[in-house]
Amino acid sequence: MKKYGLIILMFCICTSTYGQSISFFDLTNLTNLSDGQAHTYLTLGNTFKRQYLEEKDGKTIEHFRSISTKVKEQSIVIGEHVKLSNGTLLRTVKYDTRDPQHIVNLIAQARRAKLVMKFQGQDADNNIYKFDNEFYFITMLISTTENKGSVEVTQKEFVGY
C-alpha cells in the first residue's frame, strides 16, 4: 500500500511541474550560430515565434516570444554583435522571463557546467549573478521588485595559445 501511495504522490508532483522553454546550453549555443541559424533554431521547435524586427546601428535585431500559454512569458533577443578588426562577430543573446524560477534553474545549469561565478550581489532592483569562462561572459538578474528575470550571454574573444 505504501508503494501505491508513493507512486500517486510522484504522479501528482510530476503533473504539477512545468518546464521552461530554453536551457542554459541553448542560450550559449545561440551565440555560436549566425542570425539565420539562430532564427531557425528558435522557430523550428515551435517554442518561440518572432515578435518583431528592429534596426539598430545597422544591425537587424530579432525579438522572439514564447508560444506556450502554459508557462509564463519568455522572450529572446538575437542579432546583437560586435565586429572585431579581423571580421569575427562576437554575438550577444538576451533572455527575459516573467518567472524568476527559470533564472534559478539557469543558474543551477551554469554551475553544473562548471562556469566560474565571478560575482554574486544585489543592487536596488536585482539579485545579480555573473559567470565567466574562456568563451562567454554571462549576467543573470532576478528582480527583487517585480516577478521577472533576465540573462545576457556575450561571446568573448578567444585567444588561443
Entry keywords:
eight-stranded antiparallel β-sheet, DUF4252 domain-containing protein, 161 residues, 4 helices, signal, 29% helix, single chain
Characterization of the model:
This protein is α+β, with helices and mostly antiparallel strands and 161 residues long. The chain has one domain (21-155). It is 29% helix and 40% strand. The chain contains four helices and eight strands, in the order αααββββαββββ. It has an eight-stranded antiparallel sheet, with helices on one face. β7 and β8 (149-155) form a beta hairpin.
What's the number of helices? 4
Strand content: 35-45%
* Main β-sheet, spatial strand arrangement: 1-2-3-4-8-7-6-5
Oligomer: single chain
Report the helical percentage. Answer: 25-40%
Low-confidence stretches: 4-17
* Terminal-residue CA separation: 63 Å
Q: Helix and strand string, N-terminal first?
A: HHHEEEEHEEEE
What is this structure's SSE topology?
Blueprint: H1 2-16, H2 24-32, H3 35-44, E1 48-56, E2 59-66, E3 74-83, E4 89-97, H4 100-112, E5 116-122, E6 126-132, E7 136-143, E8 149-155
Antiparallel strand pairs: 1-2, 2-3, 3-4, 4-8, 5-6, 6-7, 7-8
Summarize the model shown:
The chain is built from four helices and eight strands. The protein has 161 residues and is an alpha+beta fold.
